[in-house]
Amino acid sequence: MIRLRSFWSRIDRFLAAMLLTVGLASLLPARGDMAVVVGWLTPAAIALLFFMHGTQLSPAAALLGARQWRLHMMVFLSTFVLFPLLGTAAHYLVPGLLTAPLWAGLILLTALPSTVQASIVFTSVAGGNVPAAVCSASASSLLGVFLTPLIAGFLLSGHGADLSMRSLIGIVVQLLLPFAAGLLARPWIGAVIGRKPFVLKGVDYGSVLLIVYAAFSQGVVNGLWHQVDAAQLVRLTLIDTALLAVVITLLTFGSRQLGFSRADEITIVFCGSKKSLANGVPIATLLFAGHVGLVILPVMVFQQIQLMVCASLARRYAAHRPLACPAVAAGWAQASTSHERDAAWVPSRRRLAKRRKRMYPDSISA
Q1: Is the dihedral of CA 60, 61, 63, 68 positive or negative?
Q2: pLDDT digits (tens, 9 = 90+) for 153-202
Q3: Are 242 and 342 in the same domain?
C-alpha cells in the first residue's frame, strides 16, 4: 500500500485525468447527436482557454528583465529552434521508427512554447533566477501563440497538417483573437481571476479534457487503436526521453561555456526544456482536423516525462545549492526553530559589525 501511494504521488494528476478521459473516449466515444454537441463545444472550449491565458499573462512581466537578453535568447532558441531541429533530424534519420501520425505529433511537440507555471516553480525550487524565469516563460508563451502554428504548419506540411486559408482563419479566430481579448480584459478581470486560481485551473483542465475527449472519440470511431501498438508506444516514450535528455544536456553545457551564473543556468535549463500541453492540444486540433487522436500522444507522453525528470533535477540542484557563508549555514542547519535560527544569526551579525568597525574606524556601525 505504501509503495502504491508513493507511485501515485509521482503521477501528475492532470495526466491521470487525461488518461481516464482517453479511456472514456475509447469505451464510450461521442457518436451521432452527441458528436455534434461535442463538435460545437470544442471550439468554444479552445477560445475560452486562450482567453483565460490572456487574462493571466502580464505583458509587463514578459518585458521585465529584458536586459538579460542573452539568457532569454538561449531559452527562445532552445524552444523554437533547437527542439524543432532535433525533432526533424530524428524523423530524417529513423523515419520508420514511428508511424506518420506519431511523427507528426512529435514534430508538433518540438514547436510548442514553454510552460509558465511549471518553469517558474522548478526554477524556484532549484534556486534559480526566478524573475528571469517569469520573464522568459511569459514571453515564450506569448510568442508561442503566434510562432507555434507557423512553425508547426511549415514543418508538418507533408504530414497531413492543414495550413490552408481555412485553418489559418480558425487559428486567428479560436486562438489569437480570444488571447488578445484576454490581454485587453486583464486590467478589469485579471486580478479577480488571479484571486480565484481554482477558476483558472478549472477552465484549463476542463477545456483540455474536453478537447482530448473529442479528439479520441473521433479517432476511436475511425479505428484509432488499430493503428498503434505497445511497441510503438515504447519507442515513442524512448524518443521523448532522449529528446528531453539531449536538450537539457546541451542547455547545461552551453550555459556553462557561455559563462552564465548558476542561477541563470537553472533558469535556462528549466525554461528552455519545457513544452506546454495546454497549448499543444488545441493547436493540434486546428491543424489536424479529423485525425488528431494519435497526434497528441507524443505531447501527453512528454508531459509526464518532463515533470518527473525536472522534479528530480530540481531536487538535485537544490541539494547542491552553494552557500555564501558556511559558518552561518551550519548554525542555520542545526537550528530547528525560528527563534533558534535568529539566535544563530545574531552572533554572526555582531562579528561582522565589529570587523567593519576595525576596518573602517571612522564609519558609523549599524
Answers
A1: positive
A2: 788 876 555 555 566 666 677 777 888 888 888 888 877 877 877 777 78
A3: no
